[in-house]
Design goal:
mainly alpha; 4 helices; 47% helix
């Protein structure tokens, strides 16, 4: 999800609202059987405005891109590259592709 966020909005508040509202939509539309819940936590990366075109291009081509390298693998690579602490139990525990 690519968003422009004003500094008066806390990222955690935005994600809380996105998770809550999307959960209600999924339940109302009955898009899945059984109970739907988001995993705890979230990840976010910031980009400068000058990188916006590159980020949009990445999003548009992510299906093709992730056919070569899994999202989980790429995400973990970014976390390690930028020395970002994380809890492994929150990193796509249900994925087995690497």
């Amino acid at each position: 999800m690519l968003i422009g966020l004003k500094p008066i909005i806390a990222l955690s508040d935005l994600i809380r609202d996105v998770k809550s509202d999307s959960t209600e939509l999924i339940k109302r539309k009955r898009w899945i059987r059984g109970r739907f819940n988001w995993q705890e936590g979230f990840g976010a990366f910031s980009y400068s405005h000058s990188q916006l075109d590159s980020v949009i291009r990445y999003i548009r081509n992510q299906e093709k891109h992730h056919a070569k390298k899994s999202f989980k693998n790429e995400y973990l690579t970014m976390l390690k590259k930028f020395d970002i602490a994380y809890e492994p139990k929150y990193v796509f525990e249900f994925f087995t592709d690497e």
